[in-house]
What does this fold into?
Amino acid sequence: MRDKIRIGLMILCFLLSSCSGQKLENTPADLVGRMPTGTSIILVTASSTTMATRTQAPTMVSAITTPTPTMVSVITTPTPTAPALPISGIEIHDIDEVELVQQAGVSWARVNGLLWGEVEPVEGVRSWEVMVGLDEKLAAISAAGIRTILVVRDTPVWAQEVAGMDCGPITPEKLQAFATFVQDAVARYSKPPYNVHYWELWNEPDVDPLWVPADSPFGCWGDINDHQYFGGEYYAEMLRSVYLQIKGADPQAVVLVGGLLLDCDPVIPPETAPGSGSFRDCTPSRFLEGVLENGGGDYFDGVSFHAYDYYLGGIGRFGNRNWHSAWNTTGPVLIAKIHYLRGLLIAYGFGSKLLINSENGLLCGQDGSEPECQGEPFLNTKASYLVQSYAAARSEGITANIWFDLHGWRGSGLVDAGREPNLAYEALRFQCLLLERTAFWGNLPPGIHAGIDGYIFYRSGSWIWVMWTISEAEQIVYFPRPANASYMLDGTSQAPEETLLIAFLPQYFEWQERP
It folds into this structure.
């Protein structure tokens, strides 16, 4: 059965445009080469669009410098009957961040988290008052009209399977004690003023305790000695012990597998170094497969995962070698991870489970302090990447996409040290304003060649195109009928023109009738 599922996964991943980040290493800059400069012209005459699927193989794309203008073939797709639910979010650490997050217009906040070990340091004796700071933060988030995903973690000393590891698994005889704790926590926080209904059980559990400090915010439920599923089967036992208790305390509760790191592609493992012929051990990424193999699929409602890309220098260049992804082939790595997870869930009969990218970002350098992480090329690339990742998340139909975070990690922040918003923050704010309740309609129509990428969304009689280049060359696009409105990624209005110059910073074009 397992071999058949594995073969099926490989076929699914291929059909879903390949299983194309991880935090533990920086992707080498030699992943991709510099693109040649030039100008391409595209003639767009479509009266409707097509629901296309990304099928680019993970190979580099060369810019076309002397193209023949291409007429666009038309495949009509139905107009969506209802807007999609909002997906945009930010991770929040401090209560003083709530105002800026609210001003960005997001609909989700992730909070890490509720610490079992602090609330119940002695078995059976709970001190909820130690969570007063969390209480205030959750109340403020709810008052701002933002939906919360709350991470539960931190194993108390008396319940630790791995001695001294707060982030580690719970010993089997204490799983019921954890279930009782979580049931009480859900009963407490699902009610006003907190209104929490999404519960993420540990953070990145597919990490071995040997890899992190004892008090790490990682989940560290992984088992390096489990060469098949890296501890996922035991995590399923924890889910089995808590699921019904959570639902009993709050029938609206949504139980999430803790945000998976998904270190690298387990179907097509990457080389440890390009050209080395030696391949990375991607067993940790089979953690969820272990959960499903042990019958855990009946005891969660969705899977939370993390997807980071790495800045590769220059303008607009990013990628994640561990998942074969790059800016000019597969797009943001979240696409590859979604395809892998969805294929796995389908293979086990759970294709309707929710998917949430609960940590998304573009990372730079080792800690973000390097000169290249302070310059305009990176700041602009980060803003472009943010728009691309949120647009891709909408196109893939996931429930939420959470940026990590307001102040950032390794350069991913949306504000500077003085809390002044940067271009990425403005890009987040405007895409929330323009796209948050749109429905995905399709990819760009046939005839848009490899030099341009983007998506089309629909809302209340408006068709909104978001477009950017995936080469260093600016592209000229001609529309016989100008858009009704045109915007830069930060919301700056542009005069609608028939001839458009598209660069690596995404631009939006809105038509009241099909273009």
Residues 226 and 311 are 33 Å apart (CA to CA). The domain at 88-270+279-436 is CATH 3.20.20.80 (TIM Barrel).
